[in-house]
Design goal:
This protein is of the alpha+beta class. It folds into two domains: about 100 residues, Ribosome-recycling factor (Topoisomerase I, Chain A, domain 4), CATH 1.10.132.20; about 70 residues, Gyrase A, domain 2 (2-Layer Sandwich). The protein has a four-stranded antiparallel β-sheet with strand order 3-4-6-5, with helices on one face. The chain has a two-stranded antiparallel sheet with strand order 1-2. Helix 1 runs antiparallel to helix 3, helix 1 packs parallel to helix 4 and helix 3 packs antiparallel against helix 4. The radius of gyration is 22 Å and the shape is elongated. The model has no long low-confidence stretch (mean pLDDT about 90).
Length: about 190
């Protein structure tokens, strides 16, 4: 495999790690309502598990309110149970065929817990990026030992992989800083 292919493959994996982190961070509750908070909650309907986003329209009509409007009225109670079972500490209320979730103010203690949680998510993402780096460097060294690549090309490839790693770790840190500010803003 050519060094360029190894680098491209590593960058794709690092990008996917960053995307996964941003998706995970979107689901972490802050003081502001976000559809991402409830869209991936699994609900038992029609004899199977489905995400709320596949069953209903999710909107935020106010800063601290999420509104869920199921497309099928018979799924309202199942969605309510799914939200209550989730570990988000949300208390939905039903108004005919609409579910409203008013987000309570976050206490300072809860903000600190959420901050620790997002730091853990970011650290997991950093570890994943470093793991991709290690795999890519090992592949490059293996190709170098196989005789298909010169020593200079191996060293150059390792430098390129390290630059990619630094870039993605920095982007992960930026996502973390942004989310922490969002959480700690009262």
């Amino acid at each position: 495999m050519a060094i360029e292919d190894i680098i491209k493959n590593a960058e794709d994996k690092m990008y996917k790690t960053e995307e996964h982190l941003t998706h995970e961070l979107a689901g972490v509750r802050t003081g502001k309502a976000s559809p991402a908070l409830v869209e991936n909650i699994m609900v038992d309907v029609y004899g199977t598990q489905m995400r709320i986003r596949d069953l209903a329209a999710i909107t935020t009509p106010e800063n601290r309110m999420i509104q869920v409007q199921p497309w099928d009225g018979s799924t309202v109670s199942a969605i309510e149970k799914g939200i209550q079972k989730s570990n988000l500490g949300l208390n939905p209320s039903i108004d005919k065929k609409t579910i409203r979730i008013v987000l309570p103010e976050l206490t300072q203690e809860r903000r600190e817990e959420l901050s620790k949680f997002v730091k853990k998510l970011a650290e997991d993402a950093r570890v994943a990026v470093r793991h991709v780096r290690r795999e890519a460097v090992d592949q490059i060294k293996k190709e170098g030992k196989g005789g298909g690549i010169s020593e200079d090309d191996v060293k150059d490839g390792e430098k390129q992989i390290q630059k990619l790693t630094d870039k993605y770790v920095e982007r992960i840190d930026q996502h973390l800083d942004h989310k922490e500010k969002e959480i700690m803003t009262v």
